[in-house]
Amino acid sequence: MVLRESGSQVEFNCSMSVLPDGRVVFDLDAGDRTTEFKTLEFPPALETNFEDGALTFCDRSCGVLIPQNDKEFPTKVLRSYGNTGLDMPWAGVLDIKKGDGMMVLIEPWADAAMILRPDSRERYWLQPRWIASMQRWAYPRRVAYRFSPAGGYVALAKMYRDYARETGLLKTMAEKAAERPKVAWLKGGACIWGSDGLKFAREARAAGIRRGIVYDRYEPPRPFPAADIKAMTDLGFLVSEYDDLYQCEEGVTGFGRDRMEEAGVRTADGKPIAGWDGQGFIRSPSLGLRAARTYMPSLLEKHPYTARFLDETSTVDLLEDYHPNHRLDRRQDMAYRIELFRYFQKELGLVVGGEHGKAWNVPVEDYTEGMMSGPFWWGEGNKPGHLIVPKDRTYMPANFAKYGDDYKVRIPLWELVFHDCLVTTWYWGDSSDWFYETQPDVSSRKDLSNILYGTMPLLWADNKGYGWNRNRARFLETVRNVCHFHERVGFDELLTHEYLSEDRAVQRTRFSGGGVAVVNFGDEARAYEDGERTLLLAPLGFYATAPGFRQSRTIEKGNVVTRIEAKGLLTVESKERRRIGPVEVQGSLTAFEAAPGRWHLLAETQGESTVDMRELAAPAVPKRCSLVKLAADGATTKELAPDLPGCKVVLPAASGLRLFGVQMTF
Length: 666
Known about the structure:
The chain has 666 residues and is an alpha+beta fold. It has 12 helices and 41 strands.
């Protein structure tokens, strides 16, 4: 068929095909690709008779599931190339009750958008909008409709996963780690900003934090000394530095600087584009690699970082550049950004992270900050980009509270596609601990979301979140409850996500390696049957298992009890005195094997607590155990018992965290 766009009068050729796999495909092309035009909305939104319709997509978020008649959702046009548009070039409409659904997939996706189009009953349907490339049609476009008879948003996500595999987007973390072994260090790690470097790393390791990304001093940027970076690497931490090759200030080409007249992006009318918040200017994506080569090799010689965080590059709008010396369209912009990421991965061998993420950069990134954050965290009230610490409950924008923080709306749509391909966490202005001082329940729910999705926490070690020196026990609680499970499932495919209660408070996920997570977002205890017994999940409680691993926060005899059990690890937390295996405790106690034959005990006890070290170390049988008091960095400060009777540790009640060491002789 031939179409004529009413505004530009451009003629388009369109063919519709029904493929053997059931896809309905519309292929569009202009009769003259060089004729100027702006937009084309075609085909019309396809409608059906869903009983309980819903829309699902990732709009700079991990995914949302909103009612089809939700008129209040702020964004009605989702750009496939935009910073705050579609992270994957598709959206779905589905029937919540029956599970059947339809995916609308844009191919290619650099110059398009998805419109949420209301019908006469004010239900929203999906319609593609085609956008000019350099003011022209430029190339063929396609939209594919894929249908699923059951499975809801999970089935739609798996359809796109199949497409991602077919088109080369599905590169797994295991494959990346095979090329660069330190990628494996992301498994079980935490993303940590604002620390003092080596001192923090030593204390964190002594307290049981085995993996993580430790960032340098970002404000102002001051690289860690080479000796400190090497020491932190020896402790098992990735050491990273903030970078931004997208925008820069005027100056000699290099770190954060370039010549605007030569390197700046130009609009169609020849004007430069200012950077974020009006600062500096946007460098042409075609020149980002040139800039990186001017400083990265020498920087790494002086400061041997093992990771690099590239702000903006992976998420901000794909651009058109009309500069006469480096004209490019959005597709070329994407290609240049991919080339830049590959330089950091392939030539420099670094573990590479970026702000948020899009499907096109999954193969060339290893971790991303922002995917776990829901949409609209950038709204009025909160100032995440400026890192202004929340002072009251108004700092959480209303739309973020409704669509981003609400467990009834947010879903792991991104993770159902790419969990085994990219490690994800929160935005630094929406970190695990960002709202802790004003809304501590938000931090608890974020921990639950990390457990449920099998993702990494992001924490502030300075004064912006928990603070390592202010709320160390809470900092360690997030790491303890999230990272041990992430170590077991972090590189696995996320197979399913489901609601186990009508109010969506109880949710469950399953992972390809056998991991299962169940969380209770509600403020009341909920029963859960695990196949062997009935557990009573505590308010904001959880139950997660993987081969050789189990953790839970449940109600036992009327008391909230947290436990984590694995080889070389045991955590027990209870306000009332409880005996679990080799530990009897009132308060919190974590025992972990810090080195062969050497255990650390991290305790905050309200009553006398005991640990049977022989039972804990089984099947090994130590002949003798000695107990010492440890400083925060793990150094011995006092010998307490050179030969523990029966290898049993007895700890008196005491306020505050205390660290002990037990050396076993076999």
